Amino acid sequence: MPRKPKALVLDSWAALAYLGDEASAQEVADLIMNAHENRVPMVMSVVNAGEVWYILAREISEAQADSAMTDLTGLGIELIDADWPLTRMAGTFKARHKMSYADCFAAALAKDRKSDLVTGDKEFRQVEGEVSIRWL
Predict the structure, then answer these.
(1) What is the percent of the chain where pLDDT is above 70?
(2) pTM, whole model, 2 decimals?
(3) Greatest alpha-carbon span in the chain
(4) Neighbours of 57 (CB within 10 A)
(5) DSSP type of residue 131
(6) Could you say which DSSP state residue 38 is in?
């Protein structure tokens, strides 16, 4: 029987797929529903939330980006501040791997919380040995 994660960490890739009704949107919606049913917390780094916000603001509008963030937090996704220990861990990922800095925060949060990172971003293949990844 697979272990129940302490939490699900959503990467910006997963959030954007859900919000944009992309191919993996239903899979993300199912994970969110199952997390609610099984009382599994869902979290996202504020750095990744900022990435979601700026992408939507640039592509659509700032008002739509604000609305999307309200939707995500309304789904029960808790935004986690980037304190120094998390930032240091993200910096370690960045120093060792060719990943975006925002992705390093998602990896750091998942590692710190011993949680599953929900993503479809192939960039995370570099850290599969250090972070539990739930691929979309």
Answers:
(1) 96
(2) 0.92
(3) 44
(4) 15
(5) S
(6) T
Token pair listed for 121: 């971003």
Instruction: Write out pLDDT tens, residues 37-67.
Output: 999 999 999 999 999 999 999 999 999 999 9
- Helix, strand or coil for residue 129? coil
Distance CA 89, CA 24 (A): 28
The Cα 19–Cα 52 span in angstroms is 10
Query: Over 1-28, what HEC string results?
Result: CCCCCCCEEECHHHHHHHHCCCCCHHHH
- CATH classification at residue 91: 3.40.50.1010
Q: For residue 96, what are the domain limits? A: 8-123
Sign of CA dihedral 102, 133, 125, 89: positive
In a domain, 2, yes or no: no
